Amino acid sequence: MPVGPDPDRWRTFPGERTVVIVARTVTSTVRVLDVLGPIFRDDPRVDLVFAFDPTSAFNDGVHDLARSVGARILPWHQFPHLAPDLIITASENADLVVGGHTAPVLVLPHGVGFHKVVPDSRSDQDRLAGVVPDALLRSGRARIAVSHPDQAAQLAAAHPATAGRTLLIGDPCHDLLVNGQELRDTYREALGVGDDRRLIMLSSTWRDQSLLGREPSLPARLLAELPLDEYAVALVTHPNIVAAHGTYQLRTVLSSALGAGLLRIPPTDGWQATLLASDLLIGDHGSVTFYGAALGKPLLLGAFGGDEAVSDTPMAELGRLAPRLITDVPLRPQIEQALADAARGSEGTRPLAALGDRALVAPGRALQRLRAVVYDLLRLALSEPSSPLPRPAPDDPVPADHQPDITAVFVTTRVGDTPAGPQVTVRRTPASVAHFTAADDATTDGITTDIDYGGDPTGTEGTFRHLSCSDRERDRRLPESASVLIRETPAATVTAADRWATATLSRYPGCRIAAAEIESGGCRIRLHDGRAVDVSATGSMRDAAVLAAAVYALLRSGRPLTNTIIGIRAGARTEDADLSLVHRTA
Fold this sequence. Notes:
By secondary structure, the protein is α/β, with parallel strands linked by helices. It contains 19 helices and 23 strands.
């Protein structure tokens, strides 16, 4: 029905039935929005009205979310005066025993099953998430959607009043994930992650036993240890984190990680596509982790709230079976081991994927079942012919924050000899997160960071580490400490590149190398001692920072720069580069 006084005077559509969607939290509202469109598509007989329940501590963002989809929102104080034919919500806490309503209430789950204990908003006790209040159960109006028959038995054992009040639907969210599996490459492209990089997804539920509650620095630590040419890191957070703390505080806590390229995915949409795009999931006892396990996604538990996970549920079993990420030791070896196990087809993911059979029934049919239930509750026959139900896949993910240019990196280079000549392996990590790992210590793991040009003691191989910085870096500490400075925009000519390099080396006396890409191709690298090197790669590698890193490594290992061809490897890219020493001044 149109909202406002005397609504029938303003209507366009016939409106034979009225459905009120109670929106109380962002989490629950998103779950209802995911299914409403497909269920009621093409049917003008059903009026959809949203009622915003402001009583939750986590109601921040609900009104904006409903407005963003163009919903008409009814003030909560008008809700008792409606005469709806059906009330739908995914929040079991909404106060629906008001105003003498007699309409049935369909409560949809906003997670996987009933596996979590959460604080009760009506008392100082904890309660089983997903169970509606006793008053609504006693009224006989409640219908609770479940995704597996075992959940009905679980609810009846915990709350006998739920017996006979459950409806076996399945899980539309899981169906959405299954439908989108073949679009993995599309989702990776939307996130800017190519085939040459691994995507690590972090998923955190809320409260102090969650992933971020236990390890708020984990995103930054991963970005500090995982080379940016080989890995990308994405984070999905439960909506209650933002509702409780605000986006500003979340971004402040993640400040260094965001500056290092963390892909923060909005909690309202995009997490499904990101999960499908990922190579490895690091999660906790939240539903997103369970969905990942059910899909057979390689998984590590970074945290697990054993006190919150209900015993004898599939989620509790997940906590017993899934391998753990040990957070007080280096992370990268554990990530690489988990990915290697997955590549070998390790049987470790099979018991986890089998847990899905204990929580998710009849994949692919949830929308069909749900539509049948909804129209039955409305006492309304489907129109003839009824609109065919789609098989929706997730929309492309869009990171919540503008992705920054990473303008300062710590570069680790390893020089080795091959039959074809020297080869330099380049690995880069963002400088903004260097303080989250001991790797920035000049003595860590034997990696030296002094600026002498002496050769490696073995004369054949060496590992070195330096700071490389763009001329657009805003943290002015970094260019003053950098061994290599890079011109961000290509120079129009070699002369322009030389002029910029000379001025840069003069301005920063601690800098050893200044490098600029030339618009016509190649890279001019000027050394602090007056020499210049022209470098051109045989393929598509034009990154001045990578080419300069290779020259730096050759200098550190005492190898010649005169008319030599070297191999350069950065991530999955391996190319030959031609080095030519231009001249040397006194």
